[in-house]
Specification:
The complex is a heterodimer of chains A (297) and B (216). Chain A is α/β, with parallel strands linked by helices. Helices cover 47% and strands 13% of the residues of chain A. Chain A contains 15 helices and nine strands. Chain A has helices spanning 4-7, 9-13, 17-29, 35-44, 56-74, 127-142, 155-165, 187-196, 205-210, 213-217, 219-230, 245-254, 263-266, 273-279, 288-294, and strands spanning 80-83, 102-107, 116-120, 146-149, 170-174, 198-201, 233-236, 258-262, 283-285. In chain A, helix 3 packs across helix 5, helix 6 (127-142) runs parallel beside helix 7 and helix 11 (219-230) crosses helix 12. Chain A is globular and about 55 Å long. Chain B is α/β, with parallel strands linked by helices and 216 residues long. Chain B contains five helices and seven strands, in the order ββααβαβαββαβ. Chain B has helices at residues 40-48, 60-78, 106-113, 144-149, 176-188, and strands at 5-6, 24-30, 87-91, 126-128, 151-153, 164-172, 193-202. In chain B, the strands form two sheets. Chain B has a five-stranded mixed sheet with strand order 1-2-7-6-3. A two-stranded antiparallel sheet of chain B has the order 4-5. Classes of the chains: A alpha/beta (297), B alpha/beta (216).
């Protein structure tokens, strides 16, 4: 019975998702880990997997915790992974400066292959800003774009809900692990997106559970880079001078994605970022047609 | 890059007939949808399963293309990792008798062409006795027992099987077809190890009928 097939090569060459999750979570347990460090590590050894970078013991130590968080997540929706080296892994993620080796998702993976734009902005929009976001999303849905956003309060929530209400598709890229609901008020929306649309997170469960709130805050801007890489373009509706949204503006330009900034942002003399990004290649949007023409619809 | 993924404890529970001992591998996740399809997985499966009644139509060329593409994916994922000397490759048969106008040997076409240059032992070991009623006639999919009853081993293909029988199919849903074929082989050859390799695993909230069921 014993053969090379059974004992060695074949089984090792296939990817075992649970094992890779446990290994990835174990890698993140190292306090020095960051998306930057991990992306450098994976880039330095092409073809390597999380399980090649940790010991069997490290995997065993974290397995039960991983089992627990996955089972808890399953009470709300299913969790699966996208991992580099497989057919499902979206090539467009490779445009991000720091490539994410493994991401968690729940929902309809098919949406990742649709034409999509990210609609993002402040958590505290003006009422006019929220109305602008809703109008914009309605038009984009009519033009068959999937709306990507970050499931935060404010502009993000308007973007997701308007897309759904108008029969469109939406993808949420969140800054917490799949088993968390932040903000709490969006719990039902997150569950709906995870079941009927697509929910994505790059945030490791166990590290998030074990580190401070301050440390976890750093995951939010990281997901903006992923959101940009997944989208054809990012549209900023409204954002303050120190908004996390600006991380996405930089990422979009760096990744070769189009960056649209609504004209109203330029009319706000309290902020300087619109002018700065305009010089770097962003597109000033005076009317919807400016977006559509640039996207060659 | 297109490595095979193994069904392990992350997803096994969604393929209700599979147990811990079962070794099943897949290339991609597939979520059925009605109407327009966007993803490579959806397009590929749709075209791969295109029923034979369309063979005189212009879009039949997409089926041929899909067969080539599946062959290429399997070749890339398997050829450097599988020791062919120890394996017999067997397609899970379509649920139509050979000779039926709708009998579709798409997976045989893949397996007979994908691994040229290797010491391949490919056989249509398992055959279907009769046409299983399409699942739209019943709200339930056929059970493992019903599927088993409808299958037999082709006596002409039973000599000199290698240690590992690798079953190939389009889609892993509940795992019933795989389990029926595995039992059938192991009833006659208890010492053989039977594995499954699928193009896609079906990722749905609930296993219900979709339009591909009619064209298995």
């Amino acid at each position: 019975m014993a053969s090379a097939f059974l004992t060695g090569d074949f089984l090792d060459a296939a990817i075992s998702p649970f094992k890779e999750i446990a290994a990835y979570e174990a890698l993140w347990r190292n306090s020095q880990s960051s998306f930057k460090k991990l992306s450098e590590l994976f880039a330095s050894q092409p073809g390597i997997r999380p399980s090649d970078l940790v010991t069997v013991r490290e995997i065993e130590e974290i397995e039960n915790q991983v089992r627990d968080v996955l089972s808890k997540t399953r009470e709300s929706y299913r969790a699966n992974i996208l991992i580099n080296g497989t057919l499902d892994y979206p090539e467009k993620l490779k445009d991000a400066k720091e490539r994410i080796e493994l991401l968690y998702y729940s929902g309809n993976l098919d949406l990742i292959h649709t034409r999509s734009v990210a609609v993002v902005g402040t958590r505290n929009p003006t009422s006019e800003g929220a109305r602008r976001a809703a109008r914009l999303v309605k038009l984009l849905v009519k033009d068959h774009f999937t709306i990507i956003s970050g499931l935060a309060t404010g502009i993000d929530t308007v973007a997701h809900t308007t897309a759904i209400e108008n029969g469109g598709n939406t993808i949420a890229v969140i800054g917490t692990p799949l088993n968390q609901f932040y903000p709490k008020i969006n719990e039902e929306l997150q569950k709906q997106i995870a079941k009927e649309y697509l929910l994505i997170s790059q945030v490791p469960f166990i590290r998030y559970q074990e580190q401070s709130i301050g440390g976890n805050r750093l995951f939010f801007p990281e997901r903006n880079k992923t959101m940009s890489a997944l989208s054809e373009a990012t549209i900023i509706v409204e954002a303050g001078e120190t908004s996390g949204t600006l991380v996405q503006a930089r990422a979009a330009l760096q990744q070769g994605r189009k960056l649209f900034i609504l004209d109203s942002c330029f009319q706000n003399d309290k902020i300087t970022w619109p002018g700065k990004y305009l010089k770097q290649g962003a597109i000033r949007v005076k009317e919807y047609q400016d977006i559509i023409s640039a996207l060659n619809v | 890059m297109n490595k095979l993924l193994r069904i392990d404890e992350l997803l096994r529970q969604f393929h209700s007939y599979l147990s811990v001992e079962d070794e099943c591998y897949y290339l991609m996740n597939y979520r059925p949808r009605e109407g327009a399809t966007y993803s490579e997985a959806n397009q590929l499966i749709y075209n791969f399963k295109k029923p034979l009644r369309y063979k005189d139509q212009g879009h039949w060329k997409y089926k041929k293309k899909a067969i080539d593409e599946v062959s290429r994916y399997f070749r890339e994922a398997i050829i450097t990792t599988m020791n062919f000397d120890f394996c017999t490759l067997v397609p899970i048969p379509p649920s139509k008798e050979k000779g039926d106008a709708e009998y579709d040997d798409r997976m045989s076409q893949v397996l007979s062409g994908a691994f040229i240059g290797q010491n391949v032992d490919f056989r249509e070991l398992i055959c279907c006795k009769g046409n299983i009623a399409a699942s739209h006639d019943s709200p339930l999919r056929p059970s493992i027992g019903e599927l088993y009853q409808n299958l037999y081993l082709d006596p002409r293909e039973m000599e000199g099987l290698r240690d590992n029988i690798v079953l190939f199919d389009d889609m892993l849903t509940t795992g019933a077809h795989f389990k029926a074929c595995q039992s059938l082989i192991q009833d006659s050859f208890p010492e053989k190890r039977v594995l499954g390799i699928f193009i896609a695993r079906r990722d749905v909230e609930q296993i219900t009928k979709d339009f591909f069921d009619d064209i298995k």
